[in-house]
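Inverse folding, one chain.
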């Protein structure tokens, strides 16, 4: 079956008891057992819940994976994956990452005795050089947050396999509609389902998928042992979001390409980052690795913070807010918002300048969005 069909049906059979077409929200923390040691497959909702299970099956299916696990947030998913590591382990991570992932690695995971080396994402050979005898994990995003760089997954998968290292790809920005990292050799895919999968800016959620049985068994254990699971209602909202993912992603991309082309020519814009533009340094790679370029654009305005503040204050449709991937357009100022937890010198070194703005392009009418940007830039 094709993606659109699986997104609507996989794990979502009609309810055997009532015929309800939509998976019910099983608001229960526990389940009656028929006798000691005898139950109908569910014991306690941290361990398993039918609404969450439906979501987990759907997540696995749309990533072409065998197994899916749902979490209470993207960072809960990330934390659970990082719990695979024992004290003394080492991570090699790309240097363009969501600021919260960086904060988790530096201020939480480091205290477990697990260290991270950040590698310039533009130079894949550096990943191999950074590997130490205790390196257990490679962690990347592609496209990256916020600079929308593209990392060639098969090259890293090769390096990881050769060195017996697990490759994790955070696929939040592309969504499974445009990119399937497991097909390209990744071992684990992580998502913030808060973003495109949920799609309506009304929940916080996360996901992990894999086709590796051993990794799944360990991750499933940690999901239950750590307990950062989503509620049945949040699971249901993500499941509902997934049904329209394909339609939404096509619109996000169409609008983003239109606006990126407009912004690229605008005299007030110094630089634009959108993998769908022929001028993007990795446009060709993006075309090969992804089936679409997504809805995120970053840009540098001419001038500094004053120009950014003026631009932001004049926008009416693009709302100044953290997050991305909802139907409404948002604007984020990474230096002070999503990447504010990266020390300034380190942030500048990574290319997140004071005039950088990130747009999450929604699915409003593109001409309204263009008019909003044009007016604010003017
Ligand atoms: O916010 P949460 O659901 O915990 O997801 C964390 C996360 C993980 N990975 C990526 C690539 C992300 O972008 C995020 C969250 N990002 C934002 C809130 C943001 O505005 O970029």
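Residues assigned per position:
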């Amino acid at each position: 079956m094709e993606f659109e069909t699986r997104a609507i049906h996989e794990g979502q059979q009609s309810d055997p008891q009532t015929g309800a077409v939509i998976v019910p929200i099983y608001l229960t923390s526990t389940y009656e057992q028929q006798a000691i040691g005898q139950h109908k497959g569910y014991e306690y909702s941290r361990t398993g819940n039918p609404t969450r299970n439906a979501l987990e099956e759907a997540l696995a299916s749309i990533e072409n994976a065998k197994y899916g696990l749902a979490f209470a947030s993207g960072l809960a998913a990330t934390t659970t994956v990082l719990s695979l590591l024992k004290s003394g382990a080492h991570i090699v991570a790309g240097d363009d990452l969501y600021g919260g992932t960086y904060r988790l690695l530096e201020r939480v995971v480091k205290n477990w005795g697990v260290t991270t080396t950040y590698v310039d994402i533009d130079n894949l050979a550096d990943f191999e050089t950074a590997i130490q005898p205790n390196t257990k994990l490679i962690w990347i995003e592609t496209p990256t947050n916020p600079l929308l760089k593209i990392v060639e997954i098969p090259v890293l998968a090769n390096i990881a396999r050769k060195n017996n290292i697990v490759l994790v790809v955070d696929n939040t920005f592309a969504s499974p509609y445009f990119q399937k990292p497991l097909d390209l050799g990744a071992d684990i895919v992580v998502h913030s389902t808060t973003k495109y999968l949920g799609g309506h800016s009304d929940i916080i959620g996360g996901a992990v998928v894999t086709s590796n049985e051993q990794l799944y068994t360990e991750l499933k254990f940690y999901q239950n042992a750590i307990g950062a699971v989503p509620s049945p209602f949040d699971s249901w909202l993500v499941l509902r979001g997934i049904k329209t993912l394909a339609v939404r992603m096509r619109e996000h991309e169409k609008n983003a390409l239109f606006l990126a082309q407009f912004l690229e020519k605008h005299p007030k814009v110094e630089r634009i980052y959108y993998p769908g533009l022929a001028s993007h340094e990795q446009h060709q790679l993006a075309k090969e690795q992804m089936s679409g370029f997504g809805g995120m654009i970053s840009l540098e305005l001419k001038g500094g913070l004053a120009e950014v503040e003026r631009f932001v204050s004049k926008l009416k449709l693009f709302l100044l807010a953290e997050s991305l991937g909802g139907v409404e357009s948002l604007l984020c100022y990474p230096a002070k918002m999503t990447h504010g937890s990266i020390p300034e010198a380190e942030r500048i070194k990574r290319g997140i300048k004071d005039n950088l703005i990130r747009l999450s392009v929604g699915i409003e009418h593109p001409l309204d969005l263009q008019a909003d940007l044009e007016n604010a830039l003017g």
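Residues 73-75, 98, 100-101, 141, 145, 170, 172, 192, 194, 204, 206, 322-324, 332, 338 surround P1T (CB under 6 Å). The chain has two domains: 3-243, 246-377.
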